[in-house]
Design a protein that fits this description.
- The complex is a heterodimer of chains A (384) and B (139).
- Helices cover 34% and strands 11% of the residues of chain A.
- Chain A is an alpha/beta fold.
- Chain A is globular and about 60 Å long.
- In chain A, strand 1, helix 2 and strand 2 form a beta-alpha-beta unit.
- In chain A, the strands form three sheets. In chain A, strands 6-9-8-7 form a four-stranded mixed beta sheet, sandwiched between helices.
- The longest helix of chain A is centred in the middle third of the chain and has 17 residues.
- About 1% of the residues of chain A have low confidence.
- Chain A contains 13 helices and nine strands.
- Chain A has a single domain, classed as 3-Layer(aba) Sandwich (Peroxisomal Thiolase, Chain A, domain 1).
- By secondary structure, chain B is mainly beta.
- Chain B has one domain.
- Chain B has a five-stranded antiparallel beta sheet with strand order 6-5-4-7-8. In chain B, strands 2-1-3 form a three-stranded antiparallel beta sheet.
- The mean pLDDT of chain B is 94.
- The chains are: A alpha/beta (384), B mainly beta (139).
- At the A-B interface, helix 1, helix 2, helix 4, helix 5 and strand 4 of A face strand 4, strand 5 and strand 6 of B.
- The structure holds zinc ion.
Chain lengths: 384, 139
């Protein structure tokens, strides 16, 4: 990926749109009003909504919520809040993203129903949100309850058992035991995991990430500047971010299109194959997710994920090292996730991981799925 | 049921009012796209078809019959949940291809005996004077 300069006149605004009525519109929702504006802008530009692959939604609903409503599943999104002028800032973000090659047709959408109250967006009383209407009244709360359904459907579909999922938690724990900053290092067996407190059957407590304090930071610069820095740079070979319906409205609960699309783009972009990857950091927030990630990214077939990680393959000494700091389950997890995985990967690729060091670690993959599981984002890093 | 129901209840919006009004009349209405080349139902209800982006949509009554797509027993339901300690939460796939979150009202004691794919039928559960929830029964 080469850094580019944005030249004067290189980008243009090609469509604009505003709703027919505004100011006091209790008959609209935040998202229906935004949809009006978007349709008009697309019409003005002469594009179809499906042509939009860059999605910039500051303030109001998140890019994920707005995308799921309209049916925009872009390859790049930004809901960055830099205050009241965020929509202007998004123009710059959009140019940068197009310049980087992450997207080609960007829509910046701002919609806020500040007079007539939040409807289908945020706010204190959540009973009018999509979740408040269609999810919470049925006693569904916490991602763990969704993942109870995912795990159970996985087992009934593929003839697998919870012990397979439990083993992955055990493998992560073994990495954490080698990490001085890991949250959980007590010995843990598959039986311990299976017999622990049930959160949403068949999901038990050790299959769900804790909520802890956690911070990470990384510095990124151009390859040119990087030459003058302290350490040998770790290069970013590829970046993807793909979107689809949330876990609550997916077409297939066991085959997440956003992960599959990420994988289809990421490896060609990075110019590497699956066999070239020396370590993988998955998003082990809830135990089915890393399995769906290794399947979706193409490391194995659908339904073979548990067999793929079985027999300690992902644990220290295994031939498919995964979540090498112990992951969200045993190392640390604060809600947002992934930057610690990147830090850990960089250290592995620099040979700085001490007792956790993988031999000949040259190429690492970091993947994460979030935003109500509307999005997967993945990167490939190398020390070469 | 009485007004003593204390579990979370929905507040309809202009996008969803017809769905909730329909349930009070014991009918299930979903948004359907009227474009010939699309024609798909969608859920949750929107002002735009999320598949083809048409705004040519119609509320369409459906039977509500379907099959069990996924389920779990939630031992940690929302704060303040008082109806039962661990509801069986589920996704039902309707004949129209739509999936809905719901509860199973007649689950067997042992959840391992529940098989995904079995037929289910709607139960219109009037929990307050304003709100009827769409729950499901194993046939
Ligand atoms: Zn349509």
């Amino acid at each position: 990926m080469s850094a580019g300069t944005i030249n004067r006149g290189e980008f243009a605004i090609v469509g604009v749109g505003e709703p027919d009525t505004q100011n006091r519109v209790p008959e609209k929702t935040e998202l229906s009003m935004g949809t009006e504006a978007l349709l008009k802008a697309a019409d003005d530009a002469g594009i179809a909504i499906k042509d939009i692959d860059g999605w910039f939604v500051p303030g109001g609903p998140s890019p994920n919520q707005a995308g799921e409503y309209v049916g925009v599943f872009p390859s790049y999104a930004d809901g960055g809040n830099v205050g009241a002028v965020s929509p202007i800032a998004m123009v710059g973000h959009a140019m940068a993203a197009i310049n980087a090659g992450y997207c080609s047709v960007a829509a910046v959408l701002h919609t806020q129903l500040s007079r007539s109250g939040p409807r289908g967006g945020g706010g204190g009383d959540t009973s009018s949100t999509i979740g408040g209407q269609f999810i919470a009244p049925y006693g569904i709360e916490g991602e763990y309850s969704r993942h109870g359904m995912v795990a159970n459907r996985y087992n009934q579909t593929y003839g697998t058992e919870m012990s397979g999922f439990a083993e992955l938690a055990v493998s992560n724990r073994k990495w954490a035991q080698l990490h001085p900053r890991a949250a959980y290092t007590d010995p843990m067996t598959v039986e311990d995991v299976l017999n622990a407190r049930i959160l949403s059957w068949p999901i038990t407590l050790p299959m769900v990430c804790p909520v802890l304090d956690n911070a990470s930071a990384i510095i990124i610069t151009s390859a040119d500047r990087a030459k003058d820095m302290n350490k040998k740079p770790v290069s970013i070979l590829g970046f993807t971010q793909e979107f689809e319906m949330s876990i609550d409205f997916k077409e297939d609960l066991l085959d997440w299109e956003m992960i599959r699309k990420s994988g289809e783009k990421l490896f060609p972009m990075a110019g590497v194959s699956h066999n070239d990857i020396d370590l993988v950091q998955t998003h082990d927030c809830f135990i089915p997710v890393p399995i769906l990630e290794v399947e979706g990214l193409g490391f194995c077939e659908k339904g073979e994920g548990l067999a793929f990680v079985a027999d300690g393959r992902t644990a220290p000494g295994g031939d498919f090292p995964m979540n090498t700091n112990g992951g969200g389950l045993s190392y640390s997890h604060s809600g947002s996730f992934g930057l610690a995985s990147i830090c850990d990967t960089v250290e592995q690729l620099r040979g700085e991981s001490g007792p956790r060091q993988i031999t000949d670690a040259n190429i690492g993959l970091v993947t994460g799925s979030g935003g109500g599981f509307t999005t997967n984002t993945s990167i490939i890093l190398t020390n070469q | 049921m009485t007004s003593e129901y204390t579990n979370p209840v929905p507040t309809p919006t202009p996008d969803t009012q017809n769905f909730w009004d329909g349930l009070k009349e014991q009918t299930i209405q979903l948004k359907r796209c009227l474009e010939n080349e699309c024609g798909r139902f969608h859920h949750f209800p929107r002002s735009i078809c999320p598949y083809c982006h048409s705004t040519n949509l119609e509320w369409t009554p459906v039977s509500g019959n379907g099959t069990l797509y996924a389920f779990s027993v939630n031992h940690r339901p929302p704060r303040g949940w008082t109806e039962n300690e661990a509801p069986v939460i589920a996704i039902v796939e309707l004949e129209e291809g739509i999936k809905l979150y719901t509860n199973l009202v007649n689950p067997p004691e042992d959840p391992t005996t529940i098989k995904i794919g079995v037929p289910v039928e709607p139960v219109f559960d009037k929990v307050t004077n304003e709100v009827t929830l769409l729950r499901y029964r194993l046939k």
